[in-house]
Amino acid sequence: MTSTVEGRPGAGATETGAAEAGNKANLGLTLLALCAAGLVVSLQQTMVIPLLPRLITQLHTNVSGVTWLFTASLLTGAVATPLLSRFGDMYGKKLMVMVCMGLLLAGSVICALATTLDVYVIGRALQGVSSALIPLAIGIIRDTFPPQRLTTAIGVISGTMGVGGTVGMLVTGVIANHTTSPHPVFWITAVMALLSTVLVAVTAKDTGIRHGGQPDFLGAGLLAGLLICLLLAISEAPDWGWGSGRVIGLFAGAVALTVVWVFAELKVSQPLVRLPLLVGPRSLSANLASALLGFAMFGSFSLISNFVETPADKVGYGLSGTVLDVGLYGIPSTVMMTYFSFRTGRIAARLGAAHTLALGSAVAALAPLTLVFFHTHGYELIISNMLQGIGFGISYAALGTLAVQHVAMSESSIASGINSLVRTAGGSISGAITGSILSAYTIGHSGVPQLHAYVLSFALLGIGALLAAATAFGNGLRHKHVAH
Fold first, then answer.
1. If you average pLDDT over residues 220-247, what whole number do you get?
2. Using CB atoms within 10 A as the burial measure, which of 131, 144, 262, 433 is most buried?
3. 10 — alpha (psi -120 to 50), left (phi > 0) or beta?
4. pTM of this prediction?
């Protein structure tokens, strides 16, 4: 029988097709808006990195001190991510995305006006809260996208991390060639944050199921305390001494706060971090792999930046590059990461998310391990960055799926948030450890790191990515029945 609507043959099929096309277009706009916001978030994480060598002089500090401009952002991101992800499941993910972008805007303005290290750290801490946007965006995607497009959409939003990172370095490099002031970098971030906030407000929709509850501020405070103790001990140990009372006291404080935090999360009715989502049978391996990947990825950002800018004619190693060169060397990584982020959905359909993550992590490990042995010429860094882009492009797309595929829809944001939390925590620890190594092994009393310090740091990052690959592979073997 011919379909008719208002007497017109075939009108029903036509209108159905138009509705499907309209829905597809709306999903495309939603993804575009979330990618724009994610781009700015990842951009703020790396824009400051090429400026670190210059800010050491301008702010009258050392490598350990200036590293806090990077670590502070990761630290607040680690605390804010599970808290705002929880709020997203309670009050709406779009609302929390807007909060993230508002704090990013505020932090950018503070840094754009800052003249001292303390003020910069405050601004960077506010910017870091925006790290919670990525799991919130993944939650929105899971709420709105059909299953057959889910892995690809998650891969695209995850891929913005690498793209934004390199774009940030490029923008910083161009600006640094025209002025010694870091302030224009932060003004640009502020403008981009404002524009992307408007785009999200206009296009994104909040369709997920919300549930009530009370925020776990005690858990957030304890988590912040233990991370601060841990990172402060690692970053300051080269100056204070690893056996000093202050460093030992900070490590002891981190252990004590961790124990208290675990007990608090077990007792509270609605914890910040539901421990089964952190260390449960299906979650533990995904979160461990995420932490190890964060360790490898974020650690490489600051290492490569400093290495490129090291003058070879003065210290005997380095690439004698400019701030702009740091961004240019990162272009191959961005291209590869973008390309493979879009195609990981097909790989995961054949191998499963866990084995796809293992493959990506293994390739990512080759990037820093290559630099352990080959670090004299620019083309060697380009090869390493291409491997990095391929590895992380595949890894983060697969990781986003692996983190949420076994949880209820109502917990998608918090599950993704916990996975991002441990990734950011891994990055924070990586920044503190590599900064500590660079400060510990210096050429005389110059404060300039020895080549050995970089080689050791690159080796640690490679080992971290290899461990992530082994963890993901083990996950795939244990859960074959859900691998696809």
1. 80
2. 131
3. left
4. 0.71
